[in-house]
Design brief:
Keywords: Calcium, Endoplasmic reticulum, Glycoprotein, Isomerase, Metal-binding, Repeat, Rotamase, Signal. The protein is of the alpha+beta class and 217 residues long. The protein folds into two domains: 112 residues, Chitinase A, domain 3, CATH 3.10.50; 64 residues, EF-hand (Recoverin, domain 1, Orthogonal Bundle), CATH 1.10.238. Bound molecules: 2-acetamido-2-deoxy-beta-D-glucopyranose.
């Protein structure tokens, strides 16, 4: 009898153990893993959802370490601009780049479910775990807020011209102590217009600017 109970308990234990292993495996399969590779000594503004951030990132396949994306060689090598947390990049990066300081470097491991999924996207194969090496250059607070829009809109006509956007970028870079040359600003500006100027008329209206489509605009 006691032998039977022992066996039974062992069986339950084994099941619990298996459940635990399966559960924890599931967790690691659906979560982004963040390793801070470099942390600058000063950090006055951490990235948060809705911020306009400027980053370099290289993507590798976890499986064999091969590189599938390099922002340093793509699109003329200038750092990418995107609004954090609103789906302009894969979910894993939206999640993995929160609370990051300008100058910080991270290694972010992204499960396929938060990357390119079961289908993949060439050259990323199906079900691929991805590893990104990310360097954050700058964070602009709540760029899709009314305040930021008004700050960029120098002549207060409720549309942003290329000159106004470029002027703002220059100020941002000078403010963070990393001024760049003219072609650099030109490229970033072109990128911003490509993403935001939906009717391609060379102007970004407050409506085009606001990705959240708040009613206050
Ligand atoms: C990807 O993963 C899904 C779910 O685990 C599986 O059904 C599918 O067969 C996998 N695809 C490939 C190509 O391995």
């Amino acid at each position: 009898m006691s032998k039977f109970i022992f066996l039974y308990c062992s069986f339950i234990l084994l099941q619990m153990l298996l459940l635990f292993v399966v559960a924890s495996e599931d967790d690691s399969n659906s979560e982004v893993k963040i390793e801070v590779v470099f942390m600058p000594s000063e950090c006055n503004q951490k990235s948060k959802k809705g911020d306009l951030i400027n980053v370099h990132y290289d993507g590798y396949l976890a499986e064999d370490g091969s590189q599938f994306y390099c922002s340093r060689s793509d699109k003329a090598g200038h750092p990418q601009w995107f609004v954090l947390g609103v789906g302009q990049v894969i979910k894993g990066l939206d999640v993995g780049m929160v609370d990051m300081c300008p100058g910080e470097k991270r290694k972010i491991t992204v499960p396929s479910s938060l990357g390119f999924g079961e289908k993949g996207k060439a050259p990323v194969p199906p079900n691929a775990t991805l590893v990104f090496e990310v360097e954050l250059y700058s964070v602009s607070r709540g760029p899709r807020s009314m305040e930021a829009f008004q700050e960029i809109d120098l002549d207060k006509d409720k549309t942003l011209t290329k000159e106004e956007v470029k002027h703002y970028l220059k100020l941002e870079y000078e403010r963070t102590g990393t001024p760049k040359d003219e072609p650099f600003y030109e490229k970033i500006m072109a990128d911003i217009f490509r993403k935001s100027d939906h009717d391609s008329n060379g102007l970004i209206t407050s409506k085009e600017y606001n990705v959240y489509e708040h009613d206050e605009l």
